[in-house]
Amino acid sequence: MALLRAGFVPDECHRKSLALVRCDATLDARAAESRGRLGIWSPGRIEVFGKHTDYAGGRSLLIAVERGFIARVAPRGDSQVRVIDATSGIGCETLLDLTASAPDGHWSNYVAAVARRIARNFPGARRGVDIAFESDLPVAAGVSSSSALLIAVFSAIAAVNRLHDTATWQEALPTLPLLAGYLGAMENGSGFGSLVGEAGVGTLGGSQDQTAILCAEPGHISDYRWMPVRRIGAYALPQTHRFVVASSGVVAEKSAGARERFNRASRMVTHLVRLWNHTTRRVDGSLAAAMESAPEAAEILSTAIGTAEPTAFSAIELRQRLDQFLLETYTLVPTAAQALAVQDWLALGHIAAQSQRAAEQWLGNQIPETTALVRLAQERGAIAASAFGAGFGGSVWALVRTADVDGFTAAWAAAYRDQFPAAGSAAIFFATTAGPAATCWPDESPAD
Predict the structure, then answer these.
(1) What pLDDT, on the 0 to 100 scale, is given for residue 374?
(2) Distance in angstroms (rounded) separating the CA atoms of residues 106 and 83
């Protein structure tokens, strides 16, 4: 029943129910507590528009996908946190403690980051968990598998320790958007209001992924602003249209390989804000706040870039980073929202093409494989297509008519694998509608 209530169709409920049975068997084999178990769902996401805007205070259009982490959770009587992949048998163990640690570049780093942050912000939480999960998300592919894992682990520990009943939670995290902002801070290691920061996973991102995962509205594309997180609206995705996702087969692991390139894009935004505040003697906390402070703000900052002392970033790089943010936040996302509201698919295709060009030419986070995937999707009749996520690898979305999904997906995959045999052998293609948000439920039959 829980999965049906969350918004899954019966076929998806059945598949996920079978996965939960396997997760229970994995816990049983490890002598985990059988009473008081919980179910967890934590999806991946598509950033439809809003490339690298969240940590700059911009705006994004998002959906949760129907793929993600499904997990069973057993409470423990001690402070140990044990997490195991029920498919591969690979697991990790740590403590719900400030000393929690894991090797950099491994998914267990996200588990340890959750344990440390909860121990820091909720010192009364001392009860550990056993978690068995299955995930059908492509790994390190830009669909937020890492954030989905972090949220699954956080949801488990929070539920077992009843963190939502604490005064700290009720004062600092009374709404889902605030919780999403906090989980973004948990991942990047920053403080969140009164909740002190603790070492994250080494990425300097925002809270876009966490918001998409926690606040998704089934059947709708959600519209959010950042810093702080706030909902603008939501636009129906009709049953006549679906997204097809292609993970390129080139990993974009933010906890390791591509992290420094991702962080460089983030550091350029930090530099731009500092330069703005130095030039204007203001104290704006985000690039969006700076750009919205005066009609001539963009011109002032662009001039300051050209006259500032040399830094680790060239003037060309900084202007391109600024131009991409301005275009995506103030032109492309608003016009895409309007197009979605009236289902103007032709306009949406043109907007997606502009967003992709800006990512290639100004943001600089595309690779030949993702650029080709966009082109190949367009050539095979996609209504719109664009790369998404951190970039430097990762995935591309294509919007197609539901009736065309199977034929389009097969043709898209074949063309890509023909052009990029090595990456294509690792590529994953799947269709999805706008799916349900993350949820946690007590021990019960997960579906009818």
Answers:
(1) 98
(2) 13
